[in-house]
Write a sequence for this structure.
């Protein structure tokens, strides 16, 4: 049984929870990178370091060298520690059937959200720790994305009504939890 962890609140960076991320033409899957406070980062790193040490003792990895083991985090250009959570967008059942995976996304009250979330949203992430070892230089922990809770929502693509010059008016109001699934605005010209 793999360890499952729910993070504290943090800031989402480049979430791709409804359409997969691609890197050099290959699908990475659904991903979200998270930035936490320094205190929460230190706590999470401590937990992941314990998980990594425990993984080294597993029978499936007996006798393996862990020269450059990764713990699911990296340092960004500002020197901050960023954690990346990911999972494949589809899976194959034991019967050989391919199924599309849907990442559960919930609002602060636990109500499911249909659409995606944007960069800068404040979230919590539920993930499963999975150790891997392909070689001494390609080993460590994968942080498998299980679900996301959104505490403060930001629109996908950074699009907001005020960016287009709209102000609040009396009239039609979208019902809570109804979001646009695919917003493809080109905001560069604004």
């Amino acid at each position: 049984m793999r360890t499952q962890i729910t993070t504290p609140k943090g800031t989402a960076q480049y979430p791709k929870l409804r359409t997969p991320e691609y890197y050099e033409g290959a699908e990475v899957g659904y991903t979200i990178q998270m930035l936490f406070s320094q205190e929460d980062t230190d706590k999470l790193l401590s937990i992941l370091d314990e998980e990594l040490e425990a993984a080294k003792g597993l029978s499936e990895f007996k006798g393996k060298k862990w020269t450059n083991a990764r713990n699911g985090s990296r340092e960004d250009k500002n020197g901050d520690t960023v954690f990346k959570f990911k999972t494949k967008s589809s899976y194959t059942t034991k019967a050989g059937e391919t199924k599309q995976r849907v990442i559960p996304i919930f609002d602060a009250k636990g109500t499911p959200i249909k659409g995606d979330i944007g960069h800068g949203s404040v979230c919590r992430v539920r993930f499963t720790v999975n150790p891997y070892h392909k070689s001494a230089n390609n080993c460590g922990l994968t942080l498998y994305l299980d679900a996301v809770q959104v505490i403060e929502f930001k629109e996908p693509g950074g699009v907001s009504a005020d960016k287009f010059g709209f102000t609040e008016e009396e009239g039609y109001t979208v019902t809570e939890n109804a979001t646009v699934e695919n917003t493809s605005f080109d905001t560069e010209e604004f």
In short: The helical segments are 38-56.
